[in-house]
Amino acid sequence: MIDDLPNDAKSKEVVRLWRAWRTVHEMVADREYELAEDEVTISLDRFRDEYCHPDGTVNRAKLQFSARPSDSMLRKNTPPATASNPDPVPDCGPIWVEFLTDKQFGVGQIRQFAKYTISNNYKTGIMVTHVPLSPAARKSLASVENLAKIECFLEDDLLVNITHHELVPRHVLLSREEKIALLKRYRLKETQLPRILQKDPVARYLGLKRGQVVKIIRVSETAGRYASYRLCV
């Protein structure tokens, strides 16, 4: 148990969770949800003050938050108006993020988390766990896809923000209108675009859905700044 660890080990655990906490906030902000700047850039000292027990251990039960989509995010996720649907509804909404404390994660934990997410009208739920999901639990994620998007990240996968690495180019999600304009401009069908898998680390970071297109901006010493496009599949 972490309560029995010496102080230096507890301090390392605090730093580890602080880094994961910051990365998940950066991820939510990069998806264009509304978050205050001080939530994203929380200092280690403030994290200790707000989220640690008196004995120095992290209170994981307090590591949870929600956020609303920004106007920009709503625009990108709203289908174009048509004669049959003149007032389309965005296919995004509030997000719920929680660091779970369970020692193992099976179908029961997935169902419990999904039930909370759906009953509280969140469109997306992110589970941050310190142990991997069981194979059965991972399969069960698909059973609630039509009600809410449930994502799972390991704490260890959030210790570093992969999009900050110098070798990872910038990825920008296109709106539906921008996607249509892109296909029209180059006279392409959607299936002719290069692909990015939904399980790609950056696609997971951005929460990409199948059918969405990202613009990937690279910088080359010879070609300068150039862009390519990928369809999420």
TrEMBL record:
InterPro entries membership: Arch_Rpo5/euc_Rpb5, RNA_pol_Rpb5_N, RNA_pol_Rpb5_N_sf, RNA_pol_subH/Rpb5_C, RPB5-like_sf
Single GO MF annotation: DNA binding
Short name of one Pfam family: RNA_pol_Rpb5_N
The RNA polymerase Rpb5 N-terminal domain, residue ranges: 12-115
Spans annotated as Disordered: 68-87
Name of the protein this chain belongs to: DNA-directed RNA polymerases I, II, and III subunit RPABC1
Gene3D superfamilies: RNA polymerase, Rpb5, N-terminal domain, RPB5-like RNA polymerase subunit
NCBIfam families tied to this protein: PRK09570.1
The family this protein is said to belong to: Belongs to the archaeal Rpo5/eukaryotic RPB5 RNA polymerase subunit family.
One GO CC term on file: RNA polymerase II, core complex
Taxonomic lineage: Eukaryota, Fungi, Dikarya, Ascomycota, Pezizomycotina
GO biological process per UniProt: transcription elongation by RNA polymerase I; transcription initiation at RNA polymerase II promoter; tRNA transcription by RNA polymerase III
